[in-house]
Amino acid sequence: MAKTIAEINEKIKEGKAVVFTAEEIIDVAREKGVKKAAQEVDVVTTGTFGIMCSSGAYFNIGHSTQRIKLGGGRAYLNDVPAYTGLAAVDLFLGANALPDDDPRNRIHPGEFIYGGGHVIEELVAGKDVRLAATAYGTDCYPRKRLETLINIKDINEAVLFNVRNAYQNYNVAVNLSNKTIYTYMGVLKPHLGNANYSSAGQLSPLFNDPYYRTIGIGTKIFLGGGIGFVAWQGTQHNPGVPRTEKGIPKEGAGTLAVIGDLKQMSPRWLVGSSVLGYGCSLTVGIGVPIPILDEEMLEYTAVTDADIYAPVIDYSDAFPNNKPGKLAEVTYAELKSGRIKVNGKAVPTASRSSYPRAVEIAAALKEWIQTSKFLLTESVQPLPGAESGVGVKPLNERPIEY
Amino acid sequence: MTVSKRIVLRFPRRLVERPIVYRLVKDYDLELNILKASITPEEEGLLVLELKGDQKEYDKGVDFLIKAGVKIQSLSQDVTRNEERCNHCGACITVCPTGAFRVDPKTREVLFDNEKCIACGLCIPACPPRAMEVHF
User: Fold this and answer.
1) Are both B112 and B128 inside the same structural domain?
2) Where are the beta strands (DSSP E) in A343-388?
3) Which of A13, A193, A291, B14 has its CA 20 to 30 A from that of A380?
4) Band of residue B130 on the pLDDT scale cut at 50, 70, 90
């Protein structure tokens, strides 16, 4: 018998909802069978905790006594440049932003010790952050310079707004060349010296609702330790990729754009990160509850690491030069065994995203739901699906004629 | 009884030009493997050694180093993991040349065995949240 989200919410309010994490549900489905489990279980919680570069936050810092218009000027938070293309005192800070004087990759590989992601972590931790800004001055906003400490608790708004998070599947990165390379997938040793992957696999949100039946615009989620929402499909949302019989995409597919009030989040779940030779970023914790509306949803959430395949891609040539071709296809179960086989060679594996923290997120969300602190939402509009025709196009470069 | 220990030696400026390590081999019959060596201009020398030999001779050798003015510290105290910062992703695992990191197959947490660590420092910049710290 099918359930509705409204019915599940009634059970959550009464403290009677039956909730499992996406890891626990695997055994539940095995023991009880899909039919019985679908009847008994109301919600399955997911989680992921990894470096998510397309993250950022916007702030409204409030108006100074003599007004300043930062829009069109320059602004820095702890020396990291913030975007000032908005109105007077709105700023956007991206996780990858770097101080002007950061040496970057001038001495390769650059260390990227401090950037936008770190500023976001410090703000969330309640630390004071230095704002330094210059403006051109107008009759209505005469001030030209501003230097002050700001604190998240004092400014008007601080909103995390990540345009692409929670990738549904991802590449496994290897290096076929004869020198060590430093990529966003980590340090890759020459001649297939190691293989790095980045997904929570069976716990990852979009693997548990592969066709986005319940996850859509407006879905309430765990974001950075607090509450957030799915704002839109993420950039590069690519639902039309090849899938397994069970509907699991075999390469990077769906993505989420997410939003939430930074003031109620926690530095444990938003961690400034440094990627050697690549740049600065933010490690983000996301968890999405999946309502078990029927047997189909239960089957989706019972997905295991052995059911999920990821493509192995060479990051010394195929990736940087945007060439097609995967070296192998491996399951997350194989990846988690510590070794995969590529071109006949046993290659040691390592994860870029934290599985223990993903477990913790799914468990926290489960606890919120069990104790009636978190109700599920109906999505306002579904994300573009596998048949939508929405996809990722390469850039078509065209010469500019003068 | 044979012992094998990894130690960090700090040579003050005045000792940098003396053949101290040679004496460990010649006088105390100790086997050594240099894991790391550096001399900071105008400051001090630093040597990370694996030292192996008879316990009595080892003690005498260490005694000699101390009397000569070399500061000695056990290596395992020098590379530490900030447990607050580590989020158990695993980025360090394949970077480490000695296999000092491994994943607990049950919890998927990353375990750090500092007995295997040779303080090469490769894990330090490779760790995204910068949880690994070296205290030389």
Assistant:
1) yes
2) 345-351, 381-382
3) A13
4) very high
